[in-house]
Structures are given as structure tokens and as C-alpha cells.
Amino acid sequence: MKAVIYKKYGGPEVLECVETEKPVPGSKEVLVKVEASSVSAGVTWMRKGKYQGSLLFTAMLRLMYGVIKPRQQVLGVEFAGTVEQAGAKVKLFKPGDKVYGTTTGLKTGSYAQYIVIPENRRQGVIAVKPPQLSMTEAAALPVGGMTAIHLLTKAELGTGQKILIYGASGSVGTSAVQVAKYACAKVTAVCSTANVALLSEIGADHIIDYARQDMMQLKDRFDIVFDAVGKLPASTARQLLKKGGRYCTVRSITEEKTAYLRSLHQMIEQGEFHPVVDRVYPMDKIVEAHQYVDRGHKKGNVIITHWPV
Ligand SMILES: NC(=O)c1ccc[n+]([C@@H]2O[C@H](COP(=O)([O-])OP(=O)(O)OC[C@H]3O[C@@H](n4cnc5c(N)ncnc54)[C@H](OP(=O)(O)O)[C@@H]3O)[C@@H](O)[C@H]2O)c1
Q1: Which residues does the chain have with pLDDT short of 70?
Q2: Coil, helix or strand for 194?
Q3: Does residue 170's CB lie within 6 angstroms of at least one atom of ligand 1?
Q4: Which residue of 102, 128, 185, 240 lies most exposed, with the fewest beta carbons within 10 A?
Q5: pTM of this prediction?
Q6: How many angstroms does the Cα of residue 270 sit away from the middle of ligand 1?
Q7: Are 105 and 2 in contact (CB under 8 A)?
Q8: Which domains does the chain have, with CATH numbers?
Q9: Could you tell which of 52, 56, 172 is best to mutate to test the pocket of ligand 1, judged by most ligand atoms within 8 Å of the CB?
Q10: Three-state secondary structure along 60-77?
Q11: pLDDT digits (tens, 9 = 90+) for 169-184
């Protein structure tokens, strides 16, 4: 089978397509034919071997993925595809099921024609794809959606609260806007001029175009300030909070839980959540896709469609 690997950390040019062994599932694992994966911001940090602007996060990343060079060579985290084979002891999935999830904590990433996923995960998730979503949309769902739910739950998001979401146009940001609206919060989204229409479409109540308006001049004070892009210092965020308000940031350790996917499925079923897909690239344009995401301006998610098998 084909896979996209990286043998050293660096720019998009370190990615190479190779032929490798098709994996064989164990008795408690499923073999998934991958149809779509993503280029998330996190995957580009893994490829670079560094997290911009944070020595601490870079050190953690190197400890997790390899100090000098990547320990696991197949890149990619999010996936959507079809179960081709289920091990004898697998109860939740069967061949033909359309599934999606993440490869977090596994030996290989999702940039491969086939991946093997344990039915029960310690890290990472796998679930049956909501029928309302296409494969490309499903590959855009898990990381942004789960990160938004995890951080907003920790920040005790509730009905009627006022929340400011900074960097609202990325994968986490567009998910956070929709999760907060579902919780009946009043959302103020901060984004650039190019993304004002998108934020209005997904339901933000107020939109601050950071090129035209200084959010620090806002009279409003918020119950929650959510830094969805990792660029808003805590000291700045605190000036926008009500007394007792909470600041949360994507520069935090988060968790992946099937329970979060269940919440997302419920919102999708009710037509209250839709993953935002910016661009879709075929796998043979993976370098261009990474170059695009490296520029830091993607809207929502960038998706890769896999090689036909
Ligand atoms: N902790 C976790 O588990 C976790 C999980 C997922 C992601 N993350 C982290 O979260 C961050 C965001 O990831 P992402 O995939 O959602 O988005 P992303 O692709 O990194 O975000 C880019 C978006 O943010 C906007 N943006 C860029 N600079 C901005 C600024 N200074 N002010 C306001 N908006 C700005 C961009 O639009 P404009 O340039 O047009 O403004 C673009 O739409 C990444 O650092 C990622 O590593 C953490």
C-alpha cells in the first residue's frame, strides 16, 4: 500500500510517498481503508518538530514524537474511511461501516491507504460516521470539535453566558463558535476581514474584524475568553473578562473522548453543527496542502482525499 512518511523534521518537502506493508488487524482491531485525512495545525507542528513560540511545547512534542527525528514515520492524525476487516473479538464495528476518528497514540498516522485501529482506545477515538457528513467533512470533525468541547466544558460554558472567541476562523475556532451557540451562549467572534462572512454564516452574534476594530476598546466584558489560535496572551485576555470570568486557550493539554464525539453527533443530527472545510487536496498534492496550512490562514479545515485503491 501507499503511505506518506517523514524521516526528518522540516518543511513540507520532507514528506515522501512510499510503498509499505498493508497492516493486518489483530483480534480486537479493525482494518480501515482510509478515504480522507486532514492537514491540521497540529500535524504541521509534528512535521516541523517544533511548536512555534513555545520551547516548552516543542520539548514536549520532541519527547512524544522523537528527539532527533520522528519515531513514527507515517504522518497524519484525523481519518475517515470504511472498515474492510474486523478482528474476531471486535463488537462495535463490522466490514462496510463508514467510520472516522484519530490515530492519536498509535504506531502509524492516517496518511496511509490502510490503518489498523484498536476497537477500544486509550488515546484517540473511532466512531461510526454521522450519515449527514461526507468523508471529507468527517475527516474535519474530530480534533477541532473535541478540542472545542473539552476546553469549553472545562471553562464551564453555560446558557446565556457571553463568550469571546479569538481566532474564530480556524478549525478549533469554527467548532467553538458552533458549540457555544448550541449551548445558547452569546458569541463574539474575532477574525480577519476575509472571514467575517464565514463567522456570520456559522452563527456568531457579534463579529470583530481585527483589522478594523481594536477588541480592547470593547465595552463588553465576558464570562469566557477563548483563545482558539494560541496567540492571545493571558494578560490581554484577562482585561476582557468579567470578575470571575474564565480564560481558556488551545495552548493546553486536552483529551480525546468518544463522549465528545457523541455530543458532536447530537449537534450534527439537529443541524446545529457542520465542520468547515476550506480546501480539499488529493494525496499527490500533499506538499502543496502543507504549504498552504503553514501560511496560518486556513479557514476551518484542510482535507486530503486518499489514493483510490
Ligand atoms: N491543545 C490541543 O489539543 C489542540 C488541538 C487542536 C489545535 N490546537 C492548536 O490550536 C491552534 C489553532 O489550530 P486550528 O487548526 O484551529 O487553526 P489554525 O489553522 O492554526 O488557525 C488559523 C486561523 O486563525 C486565524 N488567525 C491567525 N492568526 C490570527 C491572529 N493573530 N488573530 C486572530 N486570528 C488569527 C487565521 O485567519 P486570519 O489569518 O485570516 O486571521 C486562520 O483562519 C494551533 O496552534 C493548534 O496547534 C491545539
Answers
A1: 309
A2: helix
A3: yes
A4: 128
A5: 0.96
A6: 27
A7: no
A8: 2-141+275-305 (3.90.180.10), 143-249 (3.40.50.720)
A9: 172
A10: HHHHHHCCCCCCCCECCC
A11: 999 999 999 999 999 9
